[in-house]
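[step 3/7] fold_predict: job queued, chain A
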Amino acid sequence: MKFQGIVLAGGKSSRFGEDKALALVDGMPMIQRTVNLLTELQLDPCVITNASRDYSFLTCRIERDLVPDKGPMGGLYTAGCLFEDCSLVVLTCDMPALTSASVRYLIERHKKDNGATVYSCKENFKHPFPGVYETSLRDSISKFIEIKQMSMQELFKAIPEINVLGFPFDQGMLSNINEKRDLNYHPFLENNFLHTKIKGKKIRNVKRGSRF
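[step 4/7] structure written:
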């Protein structure tokens, strides 16, 4: 199987208030941490984003959403169009506690006849990311987009051979950063400083425990 690394970074970051992909964790933008994780796994990273984002400081391939404003579903569709006959190892840019070991665990257990391999930590809910997705899902994803159904949980119901794994690591690794305060209280970011202004702007540091 050929694996292709994908980073989804096309969200609006509306709750965060600015592009959260550029928020610094241990002095590094979250999107750079995600790209580095895929590189560590010897996967060639490709960032899928929207037209308004500038990630030119990254040295990896960057592509724009083919269907804008469709969330993760649109990003998966774009990746499926760009890479033929691949297993897509898909991460989001807002999970700074994710480890290479947790992603490698998915890759090692994915099989070609699995439409997707994902984690589940509780009944009736599957974590879309990190996940491994076959590009053969592209047509199914396209149909979901056409009917404006953007739920990943609904997509999972339409995948006949989905490989669902228990998460054998600390579940805090799967936490997303949605608001600025999430960085302050993330269980895996004990010493993090949240930088609320990023790249070329005045930086204001807010220690853990500060309220917004």
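[step 5/7] annotate
Residues 3-207 form a domain with the Spore Coat Polysaccharide Biosynthesis Protein SpsA; Chain A fold (CATH 3.90.550.10).
Residues 193-212 have pLDDT under 50 and may be disordered.
exit 0
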